[in-house]
Amino acid sequence: MPLSRLAALRDNRWLRIGLLLVVVGLAVWGVASQWTAVQSALHKLSAWHVVGAVGCVLGGLGCMMLAWRALLADLGSRLPLPAAIRVMFIGQLGKYVPGAVWAVAAQVELARDYDVPRRRSVTASLVGMATTLVVALAMTGVMLPLTSSGAVRKYWWVLAITPLAIACLHPRVVKFALNLVLRVARREPLEQANSLPGMARALGWTLCGWIFYGLHAWLLISSFDHGSTLHVLALSFGAYALAWSVGFLIIFFPGGLGPREAVLVAVLSPVMPAGSALIVALASRMVMTLGDLTWAGCGLIIGHRRVTPVPKTPLPRARTAPRPGRDRAPARLS
């Protein structure tokens, strides 16, 4: 089991540092391996659009962290904001490692530093990913048919599972599914499931995050497509949501590297030159990776500044008044 293999992370500092260096290296390699094309993208894109896209990605990632934090608090473990940043974003780098569970496993072990039970952190991470996927599918179903009928015909299966995915977010369905997984893994069932108000708060933050993600794609695409603002905006939201969803569902590629860019190019090619669509896809990957690394860097800084809580000193005992006849000092004899 990946969780048992990573259990040593809680006690081995050098193992943590080594794993962090590996995942950061894989993330950087994802950009460096295509650096020539990335340089071309930067030359053709407006600098202000790239800076704005970076800001939107940072905002989107921050909203996704707040959604995960809301789910965890709803389960009974309320993390301070610095701790949530550290656990979420350092663990999130695990998605650049081949395999579908490393990010969740890393977050679970990092959350143990703050006395969060494993089952709670696993539940919050899995429900958070499901919520992110469902909002992306819903955004695809709403936005993409307005701009690209070809994409709808090609990726109809993604749209078809959207209603089922939305229904699966009901707390009772989530609890049943997770308990089934835990039973197969011979683990104890969930101590509690997320409530409807907790899910609503997480959905709200996730929707805000996807608005930021869509705006980042709009800033990049609008550098090449100067048509109607509403048309480009709908295209940007729908195209990126679809590309992210496909990259997420194809779990064999770390971080969706490859499938996400291929789908984004395929959706954008009918409405803009293929070269421009490729530039947008590569620039989006670069910006998203930069956002991941920036937030992870913040988590590392927070980790270095952590201090051990000062143990509480016992309060001095209150002095009581002497009781008549017992605590009074004996009279001196004359």
Span of the ends, CA to CA: 86 Å
Helix content: 55-70%
| Number of separate helices | 15
Largest sheet: none
Spans with pLDDT under 50 lasting ≥5 residues?
307-321, 326-334
Please trace the helix and strand order, writing H or E for each element: HHHHHHHHHHHHHHH
Q: Estimate the global geometry from the Cα principal axes.
A: globular
Q: In the residues, how many domains can be counted?
A: 1
Number of DSSP E strands: 0
**Based on helices, strands and strand pairing, what is the structural class?**
mainly alpha
Strand content: under 5%
Radius of gyration: 25 Å
User: Quick check: average pLDDT?
Assistant: 77
Quaternary state of this entry equals single chain
Please outline what is shown here.
With 334 residues, the chain is mainly alpha-helical. 69% of the residues lie in helices and 0% in strands.
Describe it.
- The protein is mainly α.
- The protein has one domain (2-304).
- It is built from 15 helices and no strands.
- The radius of gyration is 25 Å and the shape is globular.
